[in-house]
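Sample pair:
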Amino acid sequence: MTKLHSVHPKKGRGHFDLCLLVILIILLSCGLIILYSATRYTDAKEHPGQPFYTITRQVIFLAAAFGSMLFMSKTDYHKLLKLALPGFLLSIALGILVLFFGKEVNGQKRWFAVGPISFQPAEFAKLMLIFMLSSFFHKSYRKSASWSLIIKAVGITLPIFLPVVSANLSSGLIIAGIAFVMTYVASEHRPFFLISTAAAIFTCVFAFQSGLLTAILDEYQMNRIYAWIDPEEFPLSNGFQVLQGLYAIGAGGLFGTGLGNSLQKLGFLPEAQNDMIFSIICEELGLFGAVLIIFLFLLLLWRMMEIAQNAPDDEGMFLVSGIMGHIGIQVLLNIAVVTNTIPNTGISLPFISYGGSSILFLLTEMGIVFRVSSESKEAQ
């Protein structure tokens, strides 16, 4: 990554990244259309007289999230970074509290619930980690050796990683991925960093092969790993969702069964509107539609990489790099889960899956990206 100067340019402020905005609006529009198709049957069954129940709630979430995005796009991110430490400590506290006082859903406590409103602390934790690491790397990455930088980054990440991964393995993986991407960007000796990462991965594989993971992970998490290895051995339990998702992908073929014509969404595929929505995309729009959605995500990530490279200062570069890592890793993990490339971890597809907390924090992060873009070298 090119070294940047910590100068706050006055030129270009007020510029709104039209390219990024168009890509984002297309993704969100596709998400609403696919979400309506995926939930039309279940809404008619579970909410009689409210055929647009899910899509209406998602539009409300989107409206609130757009408000947050616009606010963040007009807010100086340097001032936000001054709140990194208290926000980080708050996210750790919330991650611990949800383990004891969170709402239990499917045997897991991941949400705080107040009436009809639910809040997932893990989403807040991802953003706060990006803030904290951006603040740390801005001050330290040119002054520390790579090994020292990695150790310090791990030390910052662990307090927020441990409570999150205890309740939500998928969010824990994303947090680890965010830390990986941002540390890679900050590292001046990347081969050393990659070797260290490879050693960590080898350690995890060894832990699984030797049975050490059974002492670390909960029983339901180990069952998901066993179902991933051979889902047909668990067709009515942990392998059921994976198998139904694979059936949906296979049924779609090249061009799909047509929008609205999915069979798996008719009560066969659990979480069709959320974690498994990519299966519905494959079934209704086929390989062609799936590749189109992936292409839109690649365009989004490409544009964010351009913004990071042209950021006006180190803080902006690290913020956008962390947000880019968050979105890219979450997309990759969701598609990997749906295609049974990795164990089922329960992870949503950004901008497309149903969910209030997720879309709120994702668009909040995008507001920060828009702000950095408005001050970038390209905007001058």
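Confidence is low (pLDDT under 50) at residues 1-12.
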